[in-house]
Write a structure and sequence with these properties.
single chain, alpha/beta, seven-stranded mixed sheet, five-stranded parallel sheet, 20 helices, globular, External alternative NAD(P)H-ubiquinone oxidoreductase B4, mitochondrial-like
Length: 573
């Protein structure tokens, strides 16, 4: 074969298969002949690679970690930014405060999760202080201790998609003295500080020169907030004092007191009334003083001032340690971002049903820092009617809704809730319940759905919600390209076609309320309530299974076994 013919064939192969690695053939003269030296060249192949989309995840809490663990599409380059380099199993924080579980047992280094990903992923321990939506940049600063030298470093991270999962901070309701004098229970560091402070109180009260009145004040532990976290901490502290510290400080057990302050009428008001009643009765038996209708107005270094709703009087309560557990508030960086995008009239970041921040198509927010702004049926009532009224007759029969019933119920979940409340099997049953005449005009349609929007409720700020949102969003990212070509969501009532994805739907799997003394209350789907020792073992099983890795499961279970065998550790470490 001639050299010219060889070059012709090689040229055709290069053109016919542009995606394959190219072979560079160099001809040299050697001994009067031609010698071919082949090299594989990959430079052209790189030019055809699709540029990876940059995904920046802010936060390593339940939402951010769930998103990271479930993201599998290799077409993304992921950058995680958070001031803490670990994920914490926050439902066990009350157990950490009293030594039932060790702090390191409930945390998983985020780099352990990052290194297992099959795609390009990295982590930066830093704090985001500004989000630039115009230039698609996140401004960050380091959080390491200043003694390392060099001061605070600032840098920016570019993004194509931004996932905001920064959680929330404790809500003080601007009560004077709370930040300076009370303990919060949001982070692992908070639980460790509380544990040290409990031991400090007992050690100081054991000093012989301390007066009896002062000893009673020092050993008075006040918990503000009757939600699940406050109730569980009060129960854990009671068990710690009764089962362990009373044996180590026998002369002080008569002075130790626990008071739970709640501004409402009952504790655990998000649970079934049977659980609330049982918890209040058990606390009364255990000697935990429960004061409902008491709103804290001021916290000093030695006293808490409360306003009693029943009398209107202000009461002063001496205390040794105060734990503040009254809900969550928005972080400053989120508040600044909300002002930037025009959400100044809201308390938290508003998203649509696909977790996209309203007004920002490539920014998503999930977890405690955001809430889903569910669209109201009455805002779209005319559009819904016109979608079903294909012949423009101005009236509809039940069969006219066949093609859009599923989309209506999926796009507006409050419709399903309303049907269940009315004990109606389906949307058709609602239409037929109006009157004998099946003809419905727009005004009648409005009257039938007038009360539907009253069923709308915001999702609770819980780990369960955040974890499901992270998993849902990761699934959307994994199927982004496929759903772009073949949308699977409901009809766009305000536009044409369909939405790319099904909207997020929260599935409530139940909730627990540990009440101490190896007793737990559980409210599970189907209005099933279980209270007692057997439920405590269910709690152990569920929480062990929900831990993020086998490493943490082994550590937590071994901590539980250690506590059963040797009791809780009272060392001040």
């Amino acid at each position: 074969m001639s050299g010219y013919s060889f070059f012709q064939r090689a040229s055709r192969a290069f053109n016919d298969y542009p995606h394959l690695p190219k072979v560079l053939v160099l001809f040299t003269v050697s001994g009067g002949g031609l010698a071919a030296v082949c090299h594989t060249a990959y430079a052209d192949a790189g030019q055809n690679d699709v540029k990876k989309k940059k995904v920046v995840v802010l936060g390593t809490g339940w939402a951010g970690t769930s998103f990271l663990k479930n993201l599998k599409d290799p077409s993304y380059s992921v950058q995680v930014v958070s001031p803490r380099n670990y994920f914490a199993f926050t439902p066990l924080l009350p157990s950490v405060t009293c030594g039932t579980v060790e702090a390191r047992s409930i945390v998983e280094p985020i780099r352990n999760i990052v290194k297992k990903k099959k795609f390009d992923a990295d982590f930066k321990e830093a704090e985001c202080y500004k989000i630039d939506t115009v230039n698609k940049k996140v401004h960050c600063k380091t959080t390491q201790q200043s003694h390392l030298g060099g001061g605070t470093e600032e840098f920016t991270v570019d993004y194509d998609y931004l996932v905001i999962a920064m959680g929330a901070r404790a809500n003080t309701f601007n009560t004077p003295g709370v930040v300076e004098n009370a303990h919060f229970l949001k982070e692992v560091e908070d639980a460790q500080r509380i544990r040290r402070n409990v031991i400090d109180c007992f050690e100081r009260a054991s000093i012989p020169s301390i007066s009896e009145e002062e000893r009673r004040r020092i050993l008075h532990f006040v918990v503000v907030g009757g939600g699940p976290a406050g109730v569980e901490f009060a129960a854990e502290l009671h068990d710690f004092v009764k089962e362990d510290l009373a044996k180590l400080y026998p002369a002080l057990k008569q002075y130790a007191r626990i008071t739970l302050l709640e501004a409402g009428d009952h504790i655990l008001n998000m649970f079934d009334k049977r659980i609330t009643a049982f918890a209040e009765e058990k606390f009364a038996r255990d000697g935990i003083q429960l004061k409902t209708g008491s709103m804290v107005v001021k916290v000093s270094d030695r006293e808490i001032s409360t306003k009693e709703r029943s009398t209107g009087q202000t009461v002063t309560i001496p205390y040794g340690m105060c734990v503040w557990s009254t809900g969550i508030g928005t972080r400053p960086v989120i508040m600044d971002f909300m002002k930037q995008i025009g959400q100044t009239n809201r308390r938290v970041l508003a998203t649509d049903e696909w977790l996209r921040v309203e007004g920002c198509s490539e920014i998503y927010a999930l977890g405690d820092c955001a809430t889903i702004n569910q669209r109201k049926v009455m805002e779209d009532i005319g559009i819904i009617f016109s979608k079903a009224d294909k012949d423009n007759s101005g009236t509809l029969r039940a069969e006219d809704f066949k093609e859009v019933i599923h989309d209506i119920c999926e796009r507006y979940p409050q419709v399903d809730l309303y049907l269940k409340k009315r004990q109606l099997n389906n949307f058709n049953a609602l239409l037929k319940s109006s009157e004998e005449d099946a003809e419905i005009n727009i005004e009648k349609f409005k009257s039938l759905l007038a009360e539907v929007d009253s069923q709308m409720k915001n999702l609770p700020a819980t780990a369960q919600v955040a974890a499901q949102q992270g998993s849902y969003l990761a699934d959307c990212f994994n199927r982004m390209e496929m759903c772009e070509a073949n949308p699977e969501g409901p009809l766009r009532f305000r536009g044409t076609g369909r939405h790319r994805f099904h909207p997020f739907r929260y599935r409530h799997l139940g909730q627990f309320a540990p009440l101490g003394g190896e007793q737990t209350a559980a409210q599970l789907p189907g209005d099933w309530v279980s209270i007692g020792h057997s439920t405590q073992w269910l709690w152990y099983s569920v929480y062990a299974s929900k831990l993020v890795s086998w490493r943490t499961r082994v550590l937590v279970v071994s901590d539980w076994i250690r506590r059963f065998t040797f009791g809780r550790d009272s060392s001040r470490i």
